[in-house]
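Researcher: Last one for today. Full complex below.
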Amino acid sequence: MAKRVKQVAVSMNLFFALLLISVCVMTSSGVDSSKGSSRADKSMLSTREIAFGQQERPNPSSFARGQYERTLALLDDLVRRNDRPGVVKLGDELEEQWGRTGGELYGLAMLEVANLLANNFADFQNSEKYCFQALAHSQTFSLRLETQFLGFLERDLAPTASAWSKERSAKAKVWLRAWGRLERLINRNFDFSKRPFLNIAPPAETGLPAGVAASAIKDPRLRAQYAIALAANEKKVEEYDRQMLLKSIDRSLPKSAEAYLVRVYSRTPYNSQELNRYLVMYGLSGEVRQRILSQILKNTSQSRK
Amino acid sequence: MRLSSSFKKSAKERFGFVLLAMLIGTFAWLTHASASKFSEANSEVTVLGDRAPQTAKKDKGRPSCPHCAPAGNQEIYIPLIDLPEAQGSEIVFNSRSPQAMNVTPTFYKRDGTVVVGDPVTVQSAEIRYVDIRQLLPEHYRHQRDWGGFSLSYYGFNREMWSQFRFIGVNGGSNVDEFFTVRDESHSDELEAAWWMPKHSEAILALGNLTDNSTTATISFGDDHDRSVHLAPHATEILRYKSEKGERAESAVINVTGAAGSIVSTGVITSKDGTFNSVIRFYSPKLTKQSNLYANGFRVTGNTPHMVLKNTTSSSIAVVPKFIPLAGEGSSPFILSQVALAPNETTEVDLKPLLRAAKRRPDFDLVSVEVTNWAGPGSIIGSLYGINERTGVNYDIPLRDSGLVRTMTGSYPWKISDDFTTLVYITNISDQKAEFIGQINYDGGHFVIDPRKLAPGETAMFDLEKIRDDQAADNAGAKIPRGASIGQFKWAIHGVTNGKLLLIGRAEMVSRSQNISSSYSCNDPCPPYYFGWMDPLQPILIIYNHVNTSAWETATYDSGYSMGPYSVPASWSADSSAISVNPSGSHTTTVGAEEPGDGCVTADMGSQERYSWDGQNCYDNGFADPIGDTGCTEVAVNIRRMQYISATSGNQDISGTLYVLKGTAVTFNVLPDPPGATFPSSQPHWSGSSGISGTGQSKAVTFNTSSSSSTDFKTVTATAGNSVTANVIVYDLTGVFTPENNFPGRSHERFGIEESMSLSFTVTPSLSASQLGGLRWSITSSGSGNGTITASDEGTGTYVAPDAGKSISLALKVLDGPSKDGGPTVNIAIIEPSSGYASRDFSGIRHTVDTWSVGFLGDIHVGPSDVSFRNLFFYEGAAPVHLSGWLNTNQFNNPHAQSARSVAIDSRNVVSEQDEIWSGQREGPYGEGYWYWDIPWHIITNSGRNITFTTVREIATSDANGTAVISKGGPAVSRVPSNVTSFW
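Model: Here's the assembly. Have a good evening.
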């Protein structure tokens, strides 16, 4: 019995894990409001599933699209007026008001703040500050967005050795957190040749064209059969798209992260032990750890000559 | 009234004078063939000495020979070279030429027979003693009865000179014989007066130097007369003995043939050889001046004899005066007046002088002046000294001051073995006089700078002492310890006021060889003095100082030059830009006081202007200024070069400068010393960059790229110094590389949220850090233009915004002269705008005997030249439209919205396939259709929902039940009879 309970528990865990890693990029504003019903009754595009592997914490006061667009308008006005302090103030307000709830739109807004400060004002200190603040909530937004923040953290800003050690440590952690997140989610053996379907034809007996809702089938047996097929396809779509997006990120993130880590840990003060600890902490494979640390050792040996 | 001019003229006047002199000199030079020839030969001159005076430091282009007479065939002559009493004979070649010369000796028998010897080459300024018989053709060398002798050469008068010497006459000392220039022999009357000891003989020789016979009568003092007839080139010897006792003698030769055809000389010799001397003949009619002069007359320890002869038929009285070396100011000794009856010859009693010399050591060595008021040529004389200890006889020429050329000298000197040579130069005038000199030796020369002599003063040069003391001249030259023979040259320097100021001679003595010779040979004319100052540097740096000195070079008509001489000058500056201090000295210091131009003038005084007609030298009574002017520019040094940055101010340039092609850069230089101001004309800008002009700052636009990393476009600023900046001009191009870089895609248009890497290419190959850093940025105004993460190495990543718009991106140089420059790239961000379904990898589905058709569609999102990868697609709901045979409840269902958005892949194809199926219905068939106008949506990563197109999915039937279906793209069809198939 206990074994049975344990199996159920494991199954539940797997279920929730699957829920957590479900991919959905659509927000409530993306819902088509045209006539007709969705193909499966439960398959309304969810605003709660916007982050890879994470489900946004339910929060009725999360950053909404309207607020996001108003924020963009404000930023646009500030930049046109060349008002860097205004941008900084807005960044602080965003973090203050929405940092705790986070979310994709919060992340996008913070990304734009960081982008404008770096691009328009060369204010790399503040740009990085908002990147770090946003990345503290990276579990609330997509890995794709998380990797975009990392691009703003490639500069070495600290003026002193001690400050640099801290900066390097902080940046290494956010890089590795994203990389680790990728490694946990990606299935590098995924078979992309088995494509799911956008529309599925109902059972032939119904004579109905593909694209109609399950509710169009009068026969309960055939309707159930169609609903099951739709649900199965939906799952398949979910996994297919997730792996496809992860594969896209996999083309650049590990390479960029490795290059960054090797570069910064080849600089003095040398601290490969710290990096090794982080690599283990964020779940990078032994092979990756070995490769990175070997390269750093090689670089530092040459520098010491 | 004398004419004179000051050198302190304006620069234009000076230039005009120099130019005029150059023109005249050049014209005279070029129009005379021989002069041209000389000029060519001159270029091959090998002058004795390592410091050839011909290579003067500076030649301002003045004529080297301002009063030249033409070169020509020259001949010098002596009437007698063979005496039975002499043990031998020799001549000395004394070259005054700047070049080697060929000299042809010609021997004449007593009867006039001519024997021509082989030419002898004599080097420039060479002194060479030669046994005269060695010049004879070998088979003549044992013959006797030789009479006259001549040396002929092509060149200038007195360019080659010589002196003959009978050696060991009657076993005693030598007797010299002096050459006459054939063209200068014009006299029809020659007179001589001499002293004869007891038991001695006077041997007179009369030589005919012409090609025609001639005659003469000789009258001796005892009224004994002789007539002679001389064949061409013949020599007659007359002997006159004194058996009774010592006495003064004289002779007069009246040339009854052609005037000047006869040259005479004489020898006094005692039978035991204890007294030998020369008899000097003079031409009283040609004498220009009344007094007689001598110098280098030894009093103490000598037995002197002075003989004077009144050449006139009237009584005269003269006063001999003996002047110490220091001159008139040191109380000369004046003898009582000597009265001379008409034509009387008498020996002057010098006992009072000898007594005075015992009290006055400065009378040991004196010059002599016999003051005569009876007119030129009215008196002749001779002067001898017999050393009481050694018995050496000295012949001291006592004669009138002579011609202008007397104020020059070119004497041999010899100090080998026990030879000594002393040179005396005496100011015989009542005004100060100045001379220069040069001692030539094998391998070099020793310069004697201008020396002033007070009236009556004598300068004495002991060649042995100068050598042994290792005295140095103004260039530090010393007569080598091994030097034993050479030439002593001197000449008048400065303004003479038309007077004859100086006489000189050399006295060469060797006790062991019984030789005592007096040399007083002259150059034809005093040299011309070229004055010059050490050149100033073209540019003097402000507050710096530089020394310059005044120099002169003496150049003779033959082209022979001496010097350079260090001379004093009066210095002046014509501008406040420079100063001179001191103003009167040989060397002055020129100070650079303020930026600007300035000239320094060295006024070195004046010189007498002489002219020469080839035979005689004339004082033109005109003073030419001597001097020089040197100009300079006072400049400020350049401390360093900068470029001016609009944002960073002035930036020092160190190392190579990298400039983006098309950039205008303003360069600036800083003065050294700080605080100094550049002159308006400086710095001057130049270089391969094309920069030009003047001023402290200058701009240039770099429009030409460097072909390599070493192809510098230079920017050079020149003021007191030059500073160059090496510039590499590069071309910079921004490079966009889309992350989804599929074939045929656009590189100017990109899909929304498309990601691309940013980089650059630069020509020539350079790193971003060399360029000052490069950074990409979005230059479109406002926000919502996408995100850019950019390094300072010219790389980065750009993610396009989620909405279509035009975006400007710039690759900017971060630092350096091209800061903020760089290419701007305009791109278009494109939203999806079209789509369709195609049957790419599918069969056709059909159920036999039914109206049915379908396929697996691939959903394409367009346009196809940009990427929409990783955007999300879904279909919206759509009502159905029905007609005809298909307008039934079966088909009356709306299209349902997609349950989930799906990603778009790298081909702009939705990752999922679409089952496109008409449904099916059995017959009987009829015409009809159903369709959905399905809205297609894109969801961006930012959550933006875009309805980018509406696609009609339509199925039709005809009367035969033919089923046709399409979804925005190609249609497929099936008739009912087709066999069942699956997709």
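Residues 1-66 of chain B have pLDDT under 50 and may be disordered. Residues 11-30 of chain B form the longest helix (20 residues).
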